Amino acid sequence: MAKVLVVTSGKGGVGKTTSTAALGAALAQMGEKVVVVDFDVGLRNLDLVLGAERRVVFDLINVVQGVAKLSQALIRDKRLENLWLLPASQTRDKDALTEEGVRSIIADLRTKFDWILCDSPAGIERGATLAMRYADEAVIVTNPEVSSVRDSDRIIGMLDSKTVKAEKGERVEKHVLITRYDSARAARGEMLSIEDILEILAIPLLGIIPESQDVLRASNVGSPVTLNNAASAPARAYIDAVRRLMGETVTMMVPVERKGLMNRLLGRRAA
Amino acid sequence: MINLLRLISGRNASAPVARERLQILLAHERGLRGQPELLELLRAEILAAVSRHVVLDPEKVVVRMERGKQVSTLEVDIEVPNGFERSLAAAS
Asked: Is B8 helix (H, G, I), strand (E, B) or coil?
């Protein structure tokens, strides 16, 4: 049965789009049929992170308005045949996205895919509420930083009240994904620890993505980090997170950068 | 409290401060969230229950919620006019 998963956070810039791309690609790499849907109308970026920015012809709103068929708007990834993108509109009025339109597209996607990943815009306005509206599960992307944790708490409250599942008295399954984590700084007490965040938010942990230059490098070249450098620390963390999403029990650990000998020597010299 | 935390954990350890500030803030914000609906519902039902036996001024029924760290308190303040027993007796 298809699963609708919203990747959300409240706060902007914490890594929703990067995480949607990485989780989507990792699911596809494991043989699942995946579509990633960009809900950030007016500020689309999932196409860019996936390296499909020059292939966008039709978008989500064209489909809502009946200008294009869903099959015309879906873009198949060139590297992963199981991964598809439904881009957001770049120019149109964001009110063009209607609840009924989203309902009908999600229902249609459910018949075609195993996973529907909805990349939410930042904020708590219409775009964000529509992205979570039909979700079965939610990944709340959180940085170890006070404003991000506060906004995540707010979003958790909305997932528990403003989704179709919540209105039916059911629960949206929620997971927290901690990104940009620096274990050395957390150990020195300079950054909120995993335990602090989990205690405050009180939802299960899906994964810990370490702060890493591999993430930026991957988005620079338009390739999800799990595809661009599968052996890198963030890629391994995303792959573990996806295995947990699929029901596997995977020991939680913070992947560390594997430094080469030269780096280690240079690092020591610098310190 | 925050200064104490800073003393215990060393000068650079700002994480305990972040944690404490968040816990206080979120306890407050979670209290506000959803509270209006819950309190309004409680008020309406309490008013209905008491009004079956006592004649009340609906505006004199106040329901308040105080959120605490461990427990929260629900305060119900109902002003009952003097001699309400007599009005009840007359009604029955």
From this structure: helix
Phi first, then psi, for residue A17 (nearest 5°) are: -70, -45
Give the pTM: 0.79
Where do runs of H (alpha helix) occur along A97-144? Answer: 99-112, 126-133
- Per residue in B40-65, pLDDT (tens digit) is 788 888 888 888 888 888 888 888 87
Task: For tokens 């595809």, name the residue.
Answer: A227
Give the CA diameter of chain B: 73
CA-based nearest residue in chain A for residue B13? A189
Selecting from B13, B23, B29 the residue whose C-beta is nearest the C-beta of A189 gives B13
The length of chain A in residues reads 271
Instruction: Select the residue of B12, B23, B34 nearest A161 (Cβ to Cβ).
Output: B34
Q: Which residues of A touch B (CB under 8 A)?
A: 145-146, 149-150, 153-154, 157, 161, 186, 188-193, 196, 200
Strands B61-66 and B73-78, how do they pair? antiparallel
- The tens digit of pLDDT for each residue in A166-183 reads 999 999 999 999 999 998
Chain pair A-B, CB pairs under 8 angstroms: 45
CA B65 – CA B53 distance, rounded (Å): 25
Which residues, at least 6 apart from A5, have a Cβ–Cβ distance to it below 8 Å?
A23, A115, A116, A117, A118, A135, A136, A137, A138, A139, A245
Mean pLDDT of A192-209: 94
Using one digit for the tens of pLDDT, what is the confidence trace for A29-38?
999 999 999 9
Separation CA B14–CA A183 (nearest Å): 15
**Interchain contact, B15 vs A190, CB within 8 Å:** yes
Q: What are phi and psi of A203, to 5 degrees?
A: -130, 155
- A-chain residues near B17 (CB < 8 A): none
pLDDT 10s digits, A88-116: 988 767 678 899 999 999 999 999 999 99
